[in-house]
Design brief:
This protein has 86 residues and is an all-alpha fold. It has a domain of 49 residues. Helix content is 56%, strand content 0%. It is built from three helices and no strands. The relative contact order is 0.08.
Length: 86
């Protein structure tokens, strides 16, 4: 595999996602509601639940700062490489 195509190990602004949460059971209508909310947000149910947990545990400001940092890295790289930036 080419190095340019290999993963960086940082595919998520949240860092490596290696820890697992316990599997839980919920009523069918709760699952349906989560699936619907995830679809409306343009995410899989797993992604949506991960975001909810992160927001609940760490708070909006911290999670937003992770995404802002990731965006700043991308914007900075675009400007350095002659990309169109802002």
């Amino acid at each position: 595999m080419s190095l340019s195509l290999s993963r960086s190990g940082h595919t998520s602004p949240l860092g490596k996602l290696t820890a697992e949460l316990p599997k839980i059971r919920v009523p069918e209508d709760t699952k349906d509601g989560l699936d619907r909310a995830a679809r409306n947000a343009g995410m899989s149910t797993s992604e949506y639940l991960r975001e909810l947990v992160m927001l609940h545990v760490h708070g909006h400001e911290y999670v937003a700062s992770l995404y802002a940092h990731r965006l700043a890295l991308v914007a900075g790289a675009g400007k350095e490489s002659g990309g169109q930036g802002e």
